[in-house]
Amino acid sequence: MRVLSGIQPSGRLHIGNYFGAMRQHLALQAENEAYYFMATYHALTTVKDPAELRALTLGVAMDYLALGLDPERTVLFRQQDVPETTELTWILSCVTPMGLLERATSYKDKVAAGLIPNHGLFAYPVLQAADILIYLSDIVPVGQDQKQHIEITRDIAQKFNNEYGEVFVIPDAYILEETAVVPGVDGRKMSKSYGNEIGMFEEGRALEKRVMGIVTDSAGVEDPKDPETSTPFLLLKLMTSPEETDEWSQRYRAGGMGYGEVKKRLLELLEETFSPFREKRRELERDPAYVEDVLSEGGRRARKVAHAVMHSVREAVGLPISYSPPA
Ligand code: ADP
Ligand code: TRP
Q: Is 280 considered catalytic here?
């Protein structure tokens, strides 16, 4: 199967990105042909400083490599290294009904959050469809918040295939129920844009302050508590064995347990889970040239696939290019 996913380099990555998406990306690379990329064109809708965009992009690549992405097997690349994606975006725009984009909740949410409603923000799902379709991807592993974007992609692919013949594969979203929505320290979905995230590479006092500051209700130590609505429990259970999860669940319901205790265990688990990755990330930071090499090679491999698919797309719509590309 061909697996593809992207992450915007629009801030530092958090444990919601890890459990909701990247852990699945890494798990799927063993048995599949995987393509993962930094969605740099998408990030341009929010990141306006060129130096920052470049640095964040390299940072996300380092995150992937530190977490165990194998660049020999898996294609890791920057979206702009395949400029055909923007060409496909235009062609797809011409089969995308306005109503489909007007119903997209992420656009409305972003405008409500204060972003300037420019055309890039509105057309964002068409660019995402191009990302997915240009590699004939079968599976797209993402968190719940991306479900609608994958549905839009399917609709656009179907519209194109109906009009021009079966060029595109209709992709499926791959969303794990247990990690579909990881909560942030304030109980809302963890997100860079809400400032409620726990950074994947946060450590020491900063991490401790973040975990101890997780918002809980005002129940006293003796009160029985509901684990399933409690952020520390929901985060802890991402990392505990089923037996330990059951134990904490019973302790919540029985009463006699304070939130401080759960948070301490959560902190330990975060340290255990992420400290090996931090070490690896520091090594990569000392060798940015290696990361650049991985990305150029990834871009080359991705573009080769996209190039062949674009040839079929141009033929299908009646826009073949009439000269050979310059060497
Ligand atoms: P953010 O909302 O922080 O900007 P992105 O939109 O860059 O995150 O998300 C990158 C990937 O991580 C996507 O597949 C997204 O669905 C997933 N993801 C982000 N936040 C969460 C979360 N809180 N829970 C589960 N998955 C998430
Ligand atoms: N929109 C996605 C997000 O914000 C990032 C993204 C861009 C993506 N293109 C993609 C995800 C293609 C999956 C497939 O998280």
A: no
